[in-house]
Amino acid sequence: MLLTKSFCFNPFQENTYVLSIPDKRCVIIDPGCYGKKEENELSEFISREGLTPTAIWLTHSHIDHVLGLQFCAQKWKIPYFLSPQEQTQLNAMGVFGPMFGIFDFQAPEESGQIFKEQTVNHGDETFVILQVPGHSPGHLAFYHAQSNQVWSGDVLMRQGVGRTDLPGGNMSVLKKSILENLYTLPDQTVVFSGHGIETTIGFEKEWNPFVNL
To answer: For the chain, what is the domain count?
Structure first.
């Protein structure tokens, strides 16, 4: 069984997720913890639950989703995975950070590992890697068919979509990603977004004002 714990971190109120399996291994999706208080909140939860982090998965590399990347990679000595386009963007976050009031961003010491397959495994659980650009050039989502859950990053949110006015953003591409790669999932699929509360594919198809059917 897959368990999900969410945290709302940093000034951008970004959602960080910890996905754990029965043997207590876990992966961290989009570590946005910023500052000692939030770093402690994440690490204390992992310690209290007896979890062992094995990897970090990035949906994309905008600064609010990677503020805790170096902390997590270093603390647990684990690799991070992302799409190749996002590595280029991540390398530039030290320049982009001050544009958003972040002057102390710590870039990871090593480059990330690239997702090379269309799926990624977490123990016995298999996730389909969905290519969903538009908010960011190499944006990914992670779909777990067995439990009907998808971690969508900043592509699709409850009655919203990701902004497209940042470098590499494109609204027509974003809508195409949602229509072809997210709205084709079962209606009951629970969507865990990068910001805000969870939703479902069926709800968004009917009520999302930006992309509805």
So the answer is: 1
Domain membership flag for residue 85: yes
Q: What residue type is assigned to position 205 of the chain?
A: K
pLDDT (0 to 100) of residue 95:
78
R_g of the chain computed on alpha carbons: 16
Cα 68 from chain centre: 12
Report if residue 78 sits inside a domain: yes
Per-residue pLDDT tens digits for 68-122: 999 999 999 999 999 999 998 898 887 778 888 888 888 888 889 999 899 999 9
| Total-model pTM | 0.97
CATH number of the domain to which 68 belongs: 3.60.15.10
User: What domain range is 195 assigned to?
Assistant: 3-207
